[in-house]
Amino acid sequence: MSSDRDPTPAEGGKPVTRARILAVTSGKGGVGKTFVSANLAAALARRGERVLVLDADLGLANLDVVLNLFPKITLHDVFTGKAELEQAILPAPGGFSVLLAGSGLVEYSRLTPEVSEKLLDVIQKVAPRFDRIILDTGAGISDVVLYAVSLADEVLVVATPEPTSLTDAYATIKVLATQQQRQAVRLMVNQIGRQGEGRVIRGQLQQVIDRYVTPQMIDPGVPFKLELLGEIPTDSAVREAVQKRRLLMELQPGCPAAQGISAAAERLIS
């Protein structure tokens, strides 16, 4: 995919602006990746963007649970020809749209030429209709996850301050830098205990990247940049929102965690 929102040809010669695609991923599960995807989408929609969240965790989807949606048609139905793409695009709370995947579908646990072709086709078809597409990928560095990430213009890695999460986040970033030759990745640190902790973690990860990852890149003279998009404090309102299957941005938009997500949305737009 192009890294710019270049005009693409359309009927009548008028250019169509393609959505900017953001892949939200993580080194390990349980760090709040889908929570961030959904609430970031709501924050962007509040700022006037037309946003689509595509559940790219094709085999273990849970975006529907976070949003308390009960879809009759999913990406699986589109992939198998049982439904049209338009039927699978649903309005979500928060003012954005969603394309939901099925859960427990073993056929999507590995990347096949058919799966990669169909996912790419779906993204290409919806891209002209939105300002931003958020790909809520699976966790880890499986071939399905890495392929979904490869389709994005930019990547947001979600991590928590826990050592296991940071180790897995580093492993993910290393793969993106060395295999996909990305020169920049954004970082969101969730569940911080004190303000500024995200900046410290970004700095620590950047030091390790500079020492061990940059020398392995095709052009080691171009430094890899890890950019802190935001930090989300530990907040009881998050647990309440998750338990109620509500968006935090709607349930308690003024709470500290929601403010952290809003600040990240502002940085993303600017």
From TrEMBL:
GO biological process: negative regulation of cell division
Top-level taxon of origin: Bacteria
Organism expressing this protein natively: Piscinibacter aquaticus
Pfam family, one: CbiA
Single GO MF annotation: ATP binding
Coiled-coil parts of chain: none
Name of the protein this chain belongs to: MinD/ParA family protein
Keyword Nucleotide-binding appears in the UniProt entry: yes
Transmembrane annotation, as ranges: none
